[in-house]
Amino acid sequence: MTSFFSISINKFAFVFISDAIPLISYGVKMINKLMLFLIGLTLVGTIAYAGDNILPYQLKSGKPYAGTTLNILAVVTPQFKSYELRDEEFESLTGIKLNWTHIPFVALQEKVSSVGVAADGSFDVVNYLDSWGPSYAYWLEPIDNWLKRDGIDMNRYPEAFKKSAMFKEQTMGFPLRAHPQLMFYRKDLFDKHNIQAPKTWADLVTAGKTIKSKEGIGGLACYYGSDGNRQNLFIWLNFLWAAGADVFDDKMKPAWTTASGLKATRDYIELHTKHGICGEGAVSNVEQDARIQYAQGKAAMIPVWWWAYSGFYNPNQSTLTKDQVAFAGMPAYMGKTVTYAISMPYSISKYSKNKEAAWEFMKWLSNPELDRRNAIEREVAGVKIVNNVVTHTSSMLDAGVNAANDNIQQAAAVSLKNSDIMPQIPEWPEVGDLLASAIQKASTGGDVDQLMKDAAKKAERILKRAGY
Amino acid sequence: MRDRYLKYLFVLPALFVVAATAIWPLYQSFYLSFREWRLNRARESRPLWDYEYDGLENIAYLFDNYIYALEDDLLWNSIRVTSIFTVASVLVSVGLALGLALLLAPGGKFRLTVRTLLILPFAMSPALIGVSWRFMFQPDFGLFKAFFDVLIPPLADVDWLGDTTLAMVALVGSDVWHWTPYLTLVLIGGLATVPQDAREAAMIDGANSWRVFWDVTFPSILPVLAVCLVLKTIFSLKMFDQVYMLTNGGPGNSTQTLAHYIYFNGFKYYNMGYASAVSYLLVIPMFGLTWIYMKLVFLKK
Predict the structure, then answer these.
(1) What is the reported pTM?
(2) Which residue of B39, B138, B163 is in closest CB contact with A444?
(3) What ipTM, to 2 d.p.?
């Protein structure tokens, strides 16, 4: 019995094994294939999953701040309106909601100041003028550690823009709205009188006199008015820096009273008092008045920020057509062109309760691709937007951006090659206003040297009290 | 007994509002005037003098803001500008108002219509007046340019806001335009109280219109006129809105009033301690004028 069973089992085993070998071999092959399939599936899944989470602009994957609402305080401009209209893109990437408050520039300083005083984090991100930055630095969050962590290099901005968002060697934010100076002129009138775009201020005076005598309009739209935002220093700084002088010396003493500084100031004032090339109201005009004067055909040239370009041929704001408006770089003074640049950075409030989420927003908002698109696309979410402001060097040199904006960005890049900003100290508004008042009074025919020396004396007193 | 205390209870809400909106800010700004407090570093406020650190011999540090103010050329300039503006605007607006009141007081349909329309300039916001006048003085497209082009061509090319003297004229002009109608209405009310029989008696006695005005009308409306003068002086001393919107203190600092100077120091330069100290320099004449005003109103009653 035992042997029967053993024989049977052996036989069975033999038969089974001999029959099973091809089956096992087939099964192994199948398992191998299955394994390969599963590995492939896993890889594909992993890649697909990873693909979903490799977000652009160094944004964090996995939407860790989903559900957060950020409050943004920004100035009224088409550029920022356009960003707001792109909110959905940011929200879909991060799950963070944005709540924008747009304030007209004239009321922005008081509003931003009140945010700092309230210190309650009511706004997570604020937008301000660079020269106010040092005063606000106390309650703004430096972003250097975040920049380092996410590998963002501030050298992507022109030097003057980069500097405008810094205070005491720390980066306080991104210069998201920033402007170089350009000289806009009436192409039709220049062609008519066979005048070239001025390369020097002497050329400009000659052109201005020709236009004024032959056309009866202002040669240059000047703005010597003191408005509390020191606008009448914009062009003065070009003269001052090109003459090799400066606002302060190394010891933070007023330096505009050097011989070269005073001569530069006299030459700037004499555009009006001696050469008489300015349009009407030069002494009381602020920048906006001058822009209106040019746009209404009452002056043939205006040195102003590049953002003004579209307004100069917008039929709702101007009597000029696009082919009447041309632009060139700023003229040279004493053989040198140094321009003044301005910016309106975005910073994170130290009082924000959502700083990491705010940083995600800042990365998205400041990314070069968005910067580029924002100057090319003329319609966002069904709304017509005209914006030529970009802040990255790459955008300024971008063919698409230039093609969409009559190459104004190329001219801007040239303007920014040798450019600087106003002094970044908290006392600058007070000192700057002294200068602005002196310059306005000088433009009424006052003694330039004496007024500038008086301003220096008063400025020294302010600086001394501030501990310099 | 209950009634004796109940009346105080009724006054309490009003007292609370006055304390919160006037007394507390007055106290707080006085306190701040002895401290270094900057709006941009709102959480930091330090006394200008610390007994333990500075010692009693340096107690003068406590008055640092006041000392700095007294040596500040720009402050003295703003005091000078405020004085010029106040004298000019008070004299012109009250003088014009008196003239208009005498013209409009007799009544009649036309005069009543004019009286009603007079309130319109006063109903306008001073800031809006400043903006409107700035537009009207615009040298390329302004209303005044068009007006002078036709009537007085030599004045058409004048840059009103670009001249230190003319800017002050423009500022006073806008303020006079704003205040004269209201003062006129007040003086018309005063003229209505002049006893008609006294006027008639003087005329019967052979007094001409000038003598009637000078000897009868003027003494009768003197208390009202004094109230107008004091009230207008108070408002002129704290002139800010139109300065800010029309000239912004320029050209240079030639139209910078004290209130404008305080605003800039407090809210543009964030130096609240210093701005508070300077504000107290304005409080002193204001307090004196308010006291006179109260006396006059009390006398009138």
Answers:
(1) 0.84
(2) B163
(3) 0.82
